[in-house]
What does this fold into?
Amino acid sequence: MINAVPHKRATQFGPCTVYGVPPPVPTVTINPDPPTAGASLSINVSATAASPINQGVIITVAFLDANYNLLGTASIQDFCSQAGISCPVAAGASFTVPTITTTAPPTINPGTILGINIGDPSGNTNPVQCAMAQF
It folds into this structure.
């Protein structure tokens, strides 16, 4: 018998494929990993800015179904008002977003997506950073 827990791999976050040219992918870790349906989820995000990040940018955390429909409510926060972040963030500068806490949807079916997007709230431009993981 094999104990699967030591062989568990961390959730892998990759590029946001919904954009023609995917933006840079930040480093994302979650706890618990994988998320537990209906439970609290802590998300940590860090990256190096590929381009300047200016006032007005938001960070959005959302669970989506396999067809990219929103599950529950997205967490939307002003990026520049996060503790330890001072905007503008210069291109090439590293940043860490304070832990974001959200609630996973009541059901996490195969194909459920967790997306983290740092970008313009209008959605008119590609995000400056974006990551997705599928469960």
